[in-house]
Amino acid sequence: MAGKKGTWNMNQEQKEELLHLESCLSLIQENIRLYEAREQAGRKEVTALFQAVKKGEGDSYGQLTASQNILEHTQNALRKNRAALKKPYFGRIDYDDLTYESTERLYIGKNGITKNQTDVVIVDWRAPAASIYYENELGHGFYYVPEADDVEIDLHRKRTYDISDGKLLGFYDDDVAANDELLVKYLSQNKEAVLGDIIATIQKEQNEIIRDIPSKNIIVQGVAGSGKTTVALHRISYLLYNYEDKYKPAEFCIIGGNDMLLNYISSGLPELDVKNVRQMRMDAIFPYFLGNHFKKSFRIVPDLPEAPLKSRLSFVRKLDAFLKKWQEDALSIQDITDPELGVVLSSANMEEARFYHPDLSLFQTEKLFNERLASRIRFLCTERTPEYKKAKLLNYRKYFDSSRHKWTEDSIYLAFLETLSGESEESCSLFSATIESVRKKRFDVYDVASLALIKKRILQKKEMDEFSQIIVDEAQDFGETVYYVLKEIFPPCFFTIMGDVSQNIRYETGMNDWESLKKALFKEERDSFYLLAKSYRNTIEISQYAGKVLEKASQGSYRIQPVIRHGLPPEIHRADTASLPALLLETVDAVKAKNFETIAVVCRTEDEAAEVRSILDITDADSSAFHNGVMVLPVMLTKGLEFDCVILWKPDESRYGNNPREAKLLYVAITRALHELHLMLDADPSSLLL
Ligand SMILES: Nc1ncnc2c1ncn2[C@@H]1O[C@H](COP(=O)(O)OP(=O)(O)OP(=O)(O)O)[C@@H](O)[C@H]1O
């Protein structure tokens, strides 16, 4: 029998495993030689064909495209084999396939490896059968195959390997994939080392989200460090691998709150074999939908004072009702009667068109009505002369034509805001800042979302169907309005929404619970809500420190369950105000000496961050790129990021008061730290920390 959890198997099996690893490595080396030779030949061929195309020879363009495709394929295979050389696989499953009546032993790796280009020797982690490794327990079970029937199996063994630099360090048989020992080993490494290895330790509850079907909406509430971003990236990789015929990478769009987060996320994608996925900030996706004419003349501003009201469902629903009424008034559905031809288009005909196309904008509906009108006129003029028919068609050509009003999104929005203001004296003053700002073409994210809805309902001429999957990270930082609008403006799209209400840094506008989103927007039977409670990022000591703050941030509604990994307790460095900069320099030097790859000094505001940058003589203030070394950031910009070591600058009562709003900010700051947390103080720490 193979060794129990955590024991190193010093027996025949070990020898067999060593031999197997050797044979895999030599196959990979052979593959690399083969693909290198092919790549060289392919490059020569492409260069020659390129010259031929320039000279305009024969069918060289078609040949060039075909050769470029083959070259790309070869380069891909070469990259995968090279990557597999250090760690060809991380898991193995032995099972009887009861559906196809066979016995299988599959080695699972980050990259699928084949022999003679056809025989699978190592199975890609995204392949359907690999889900057995992550999800099934020993014994009878099933695994899911996209768009096919489940396969019935009897699982005998699940084995996890610890392989580094092509050397087998150990293997463990366990019912649970990637037992805690291996997980903790990975988590104890520095940030960079961890990224590439996660597929070996993906947990069951994470795997369920990664492999859930694409034709549904998913909301994930996960505590800080529970792997939401990680799961989102793996899900994209999984869906593109398994639904290759259905989705192209450019149909995926990742939405985040700021460029730093998007930059951080996108840096992880190539590692997972994903290229060309789109990314946009939340406040950029609506202007993108609104189009170029809009982008030229507007400015996005931070949330205006009325943002809390505008972020709520009640506001966007009122806007939608207003727009429906606007449509109805503009269309005025009544029989259209011609003095000579009689009824040319009946109200019933128009009602029917509206019934079957409820999502068309006013302009699209008018186009449809005009087309129906024209075809009815052609029919009614069958017996008439061509000139008569032509004259009638011309007469009714633009019967429905609201474009003559020259409405714009902002003019309609102003009309709506003014209607709201008319509702009561109170609401007039409630929206005055927004009205003033909109007149100057300055919009916050909720205004641009509203404008996008207006375009969708009234002014849109062509559907926008370029996205099929939208993935929102740090989703709690935005209110329901943006989700309502996103769903309406990209109707064929499915959403994966990742967030943590305890980290809502925009307390008044963002999401402090998921109820309305779950109940009102993503309420289809197949939509799912997942919870991730385990945190993989922080040491126990840091998690417990964060836990105290969390209690105050969200009454402990979603508690953290840390993976057992110990580190140093958070350390307080205290000095008087004049001496604190010197103490900071000393602390930074001390943590740098520990060879941490990423260190962040986290400040309450951007102004303080600028101050600290000058203390540390750091000049890359406006760079939105996440990088190794020391970064100084205001807490708002640290959302979604993580660092080996975090140094908190002055987390005292004046900066983080004892209220849920500031508790959430402090919770975010603390939970950015993987291994060490330091606090620099010239006063007593915030009571949130006591
Ligand atoms: N199954 C896993 N095995 C190993 N490491 C993991 C696993 N899941 C997550 N991690 C690691 O835990 C850390 C946190 O993951 P991630 O940033 O995805 O969490 P998050 O939920 O998005 O966090 P936050 O909400 O705080 O931004 C990362 O270093 C990630 O690599």
From TrEMBL:
Binding positions (ATP): 222-229
Domain UvrD-like helicase ATP-binding: 201-539
Pfam families, per the entry: UvrD-helicase, UvrD_C_2
Keyword tRNA processing in annotation: no
Origin: domain of life: Bacteria
Keywords noted in UniProt: ATP-binding, Helicase, Hydrolase, Nucleotide-binding
Protein name as it appears in the record: UvrD-like helicase ATP-binding domain-containing protein
Native species: Sellimonas caecigallum
